[in-house]
Amino acid sequence: MTITSFSQDLKINSRELVDTIHSTADMFGAKGVWGSESTQTGVCRLALSDLDKQVKDWFIVETKKLGCTIKIDECGNIFATYPGKYNDALPTGMGSHLDTQPTGGRYDGIYGVLSGLQVLRTLKENNITPNFPITLVDWCNEEGARFAMSLMASSVWAGIKTKEEIYALKDIYDNETTVLQELKRIGYLGETKCSYKENPLKCHFEIHIEQGPVLEEYEKKIGVLTGAQAYNWLNIKIEGMSQHTGTTPMEFRRDALLATAKIISGINEVAKKYKGLASVGKLSLLPDVVNVIPGEVDFVLDIRHQNDEGLSHIRKGCQEVIEEACLNKAGNGVKLPYSIIDPYPYPATHFDKSLINIIDDSAVAIVGEELKHKMYSGAGHDSCATNLVIPTAMIFVPSRDGISHNPKEHTEPEDLELGFRVLLESILRYDNARLS
Amino acid sequence: MTITSFSQDLKINSRELVDTIHSTADMFGAKGVWGSESTQTGVCRLALSDLDKQVKDWFIVETKKLGCTIKIDECGNIFATYPGKYNDALPTGMGSHLDTQPTGGRYDGIYGVLSGLQVLRTLKENNITPNFPITLVDWCNEEGARFAMSLMASSVWAGIKTKEEIYALKDIYDNETTVLQELKRIGYLGETKCSYKENPLKCHFEIHIEQGPVLEEYEKKIGVLTGAQAYNWLNIKIEGMSQHTGTTPMEFRRDALLATAKIISGINEVAKKYKGLASVGKLSLLPDVVNVIPGEVDFVLDIRHQNDEGLSHIRKGCQEVIEEACLNKAGNGVKLPYSIIDPYPYPATHFDKSLINIIDDSAVAIVGEELKHKMYSGAGHDSCATNLVIPTAMIFVPSRDGISHNPKEHTEPEDLELGFRVLLESILRYDNARLS
Ligand SMILES: NC(=O)NCCC(=O)O
Ligand SMILES: NC(=O)NCCC(=O)O
Asked: Which keywords does this Swiss-Prot/TrEMBL entry list (chains A, B) (predicted)?
């Protein structure tokens, strides 16, 4: 079966997308050199930092050039709307994020926003007025790296977090600066309500790098996503007793770090048993001194599974591991108190069937049946938030060696271009389908 | 057998010592409230901080009041010398340190310096001129908490470290500020050579809280120390691969923190096997982000044993544990590179026999045979450094519940007073013995 393409007769400059990815990386936060080429660095552009402000300013300038109108909402999201023929109808949405990890790459999130920009540039260059307006969104703080809630502002928009909750989040690096302070400081505390009800979209398309090894393994070019893993970030505190490392016999200790070490080993087994994931990426000791047994350890346990049931098995297994470790059998057997806060559970995502079909058809039109692959996402994305309230679907392109959240994150330019063309095709196909 | 006491006819105001401990704690860094009494806090007075400068200034004022002459050496050590009859002879030394842990108590080190001060105050009040001058030393940065080398300036004085080495040490909290900068900034980069050759002492007495559970367990009041444990602080770096926690299957990982967790569990077993100690108190992740598998973990492994042979067994056992963990069997089996630097091995200390006897006799004179106990020290002390070059010995008093390096560190006032009286007796007894 061949599928007609809605974009095949357009003048398409997909190379411009790749150039924009690298020129913006160079201007706004290039960091972490891993090769001799000038493009071989990552990007460090933490949410609501000066660099995030600069790239947001740039984004507004570029979309305005194309005739877009701009709305900034109360949570720092930017909505750039390209006009259509029926401007009273809800806009077709597409988006991703321009913030990065501290040791991030050039593509995570950025690729999605700039591909959306390239869609609008292509419409402009070809003098196309779509049937319906198209809104490109830069969602604020998707990573949760600096303010530890991923999909932050898209979650408020989708109504599962309140703006008050996110305003109060503190910078993990100084434990002081809040989201609200930073939104004000960089001038992105907008007036538009952050709500799918008051600032609605018809749907949400997102293209993203896979950040995992699957497409590469199967030698596929395009991932057509059916959903994303359920995940949960548990804030855990283990309380021991800070004592002198040189005078306290091993058997008398209440070592919060030893308990944590047993937990980290244990959750690894739990994740494997249930074919999911469990990781500790963030951890701190109190005090943090060579010759003091840590009296307190705080860490975040990141657990994930393809389905909600699997996630709750892992959650339960981890709880047991924690209980067991806190019995402090290696020490004096005085139980270590612990606490677990899970402010941020995300259920498994199942994308919209008709949007999945649009993307599937578009992928077939651009790369053919052989090179596309139905799959689900390991990572959370803003689309997991939007999917709670509007039809949503996603496209993936391969990540070299499955590496992400690392400056070495890489996708071949040809693959970036192919992915963009699938997005363009999907947007036009959807715009057309809305007519009937 | 009863032993005559050299101090029994003196007017002794040992309560003044306890008062000075609390008044200086209140003035210079009280922190970490643990009870409702005003004395129920710890002290945070990091080496070469503003508070350390203030307490050093105070120390100089107080010793000058007694007629002491002051020398400040190139490493921030302060030598306050109380004159004797034979001032050409080498001074009898006593000392300890006024710096603390970030979560330190009121006694660790401080008790030793202030007991020395109380010895001098007692001589003054009783109009006693000793045969030989007596030098009270405040050794700079014993803890190694802020600049991670314990017994820092006493080690330079003893010739096993150079001043250049310690000048270059960096503040672990900002990884920038050096010892040299801070010595200059607080005005304690003195001109006296930091050397036992050029600024010698005849011997070194030190009184200290035990910081462990032994005296309390045996219901003894005075520890007569025969030596101190061998110890070593190994700086270890494990290199993994920073990757996305949500997209990287457990089997594909190179998780530097998982390897570290296995090491922390493993060294615990090694320490128990060889009846020594092994602890990790300081640890950091790179990056340190919820959804990134740590690509690098740096930590310090603190190992100790009563004798040098035991320490080298533990060292070897830990090396094997590290090797094994770095095979990364739980991940993709790609070996994780690691490095171990051990800049700071301290061999087991064996104090001077004749000084031990002086202290033993003094303890018998003050508390009787029944209440003193021969033992060795779990922690390192400035006396471990001085013992390398001059006759040295130490006195311990009990620590409640063996707790130290914790604001809750506590010794009963009566026990503090008894310990001081043993120090006073030892100094007078030694001063007398030197005549013959
Ligand atoms: N795509 C991505 O890295 N999102 C951040 C949230 C997550 O950790 O899954
Ligand atoms: N006494 C004391 O805490 N000294 C610091 C060095 C060590 O850790 O043993």
From this structure: Hydrolase
